[in-house]
Design brief:
The protein is α/β, with parallel strands linked by helices. The chain has helices spanning about 15-30, 45-55, 80-85, 95-100, 105-120, 130-135, 140-145, 175-195, 195-200, 215-220, 235-245; strands at about 5-10, 35-40, 60-65, 90-95, 120-125, 160, 205, 225-230. It has an eight-stranded parallel β-barrel, surrounded by six helices. The protein binds phosphoenolpyruvate (PEP).
């Protein structure tokens, strides 16, 4: 049984105060429930405040990126060990916005993921096809290519986020059937790369315009083990509603 994982990607929104207040709500609502894993990924400047509030609870705080080297002359970058020093447990790697705007490739994303795991962080590794590729019928070929780098990672500290680029921040969500097809394909593919036991245990998250009103159907799919949520995670009520859609959730304190 895979424990659902629901992660908030705040992108470039929110400072320390907003993140601390948000995490406070998450801790109060979900901080003592082991049935679900909740990860909050605010911008770098908000990480210390968020990590301090989350400390000692089941709520995890994660970064949105880290560098592939452990240290060095890389102005503007952050090493995975620096995130660990703040008490973080997760980092998002290979997000499509990094690929689109900052030249991220499969190779650089894989390097970041390896560095994160070396430092002891778990990785949410993002991949997904563009609209052009989907319309050309090349979705599974793209996923096959992008997922090849997962062979170099430790399955124990890994979750994969299937995020069709055309669904991110657009309000256009993949149908449950489209998501399940991609997730089932990825699980089979990862089975070939990392072994079938590892693939059976690996959480594959869906990301792309997840909202409170479509989360239940998406999270109800057999191979959808959680969600990576962008815009809808900025509001604590909406994000809480999405978390509650993860099957089997039981809130103890609200
Ligand atoms: C994301 O940033 O990973 C994402 C899925 O964004 P949104 O939920 O806004 O589409």
């Amino acid at each position: 049984m895979r424990r659902p994982l629901v992660a908030a990607n705040w992108k470039m929104h929110g400072g320390p105060d907003a993140a601390a207040k948000f995490v406070e709500v998450m801790v109060a609502r979900f901080g003592d429930d082991p049935s679900r894993e909740v990860v909050v990924c605010p911008p770098f400047t908000a990480l210390p405040a968020a990590a301090m509030i989350a400390s000692g609870s089941a709520i995890a705080v994660g970064g949105q990126n880290c560098h592939w080297e452990d240290k060095g002359a890389f102005t503007g970058e952050v090493a995975a060990s620096m995130l660990v020093e703040l008490g973080l447990r997760w980092v998002i790697v290979g997000h499509s916005e990094r690929r689109q705007y900052f030249g991220e490739t499969d190779a650089t994303a894989a390097g970041r993921a390896r560095a994160a795991q070396r430092a002891g962080l778990s990785v949410i590794y993002c991949l997904g096809e563009t609209l052009e590729k989907r319309e050309a019928g090349e979705t599974l070929a793209v996923l096959e290519r992008q997922s090849a780098v997962l062979a170099g990672l430790d399955a124990g500290g890994l979750a994969v986020a299937y995020e069709p680029v055309w669904a991110i921040g657009t309000g256009r969500t993949a149908t449950a059937a489209q998501a399940e097809e991609a997730h089932a394909f990825l699980r089979g593919r990862i089975g070939g790369l990392l072994g079938t036991d590892a693939a059976a245990a690996l959480r594959i998250l869906y990301g792309g315009s997840v909202k409170a009103d479509n989360a239940a159907e998406l999270l109800g799919q057999e191979d959808v083990d959680g969600a990576l949520v962008g815009g809808a995670s900025l509001d604590a009520e909406t994000f809480s509603a999405i978390i509650r859609c993860a099957p089997g959730f039981t809130a103890r304190r609200e």
